[in-house]
Amino acid sequence: MPRADFYLIAKPRFLTEPLRLVCELARKANDAGLFTLVLARDQAQAEELDELLWAFDDDAYIPHQIAGEDMDEEEALVLIAAPGTDAPARPLVINLRDAPWMGECQRVLEVVPADPEAREPLRERWRQYKDAGYDLSKHDM
């Protein structure tokens, strides 16, 4: 059964920079050797995340790249995909887009902003995953 984990932003270090949480999740996936697909909201967010993954921690190197920019993308543990980009299926998906990810994967991670208005659509997304048979869990970050 696929699994969906919702990460609710609450800690001060993630409030102003929610992509830092994405970097932390990518680091954990990398440390576990999990091939991960990050679904960016748009090309600008994909590029911002690419830059942040290089710089967010001096002690961590996370092999990553933006899908479609290099022929060796299957070797990168973390692949960042903007909308409209073909990207291979990966066991772990970090979804930053506005719609739930119902594609092939074992686990999908959803980052939930601290803003109460922004959380409402994610409540609906929770119901959509539940209706699709996903095992659900919530984590306060």
UniProtKB/TrEMBL annotation:
GO terms for biological process: DNA replication; positive regulation of DNA-templated DNA replication initiation. It comes from the Bacteria. Coiled coil: none annotated. GO terms for molecular function: DNA binding; DNA-directed DNA polymerase activity. It comes from Stenotrophomonas tumulicola. This is DNA polymerase III subunit chi.
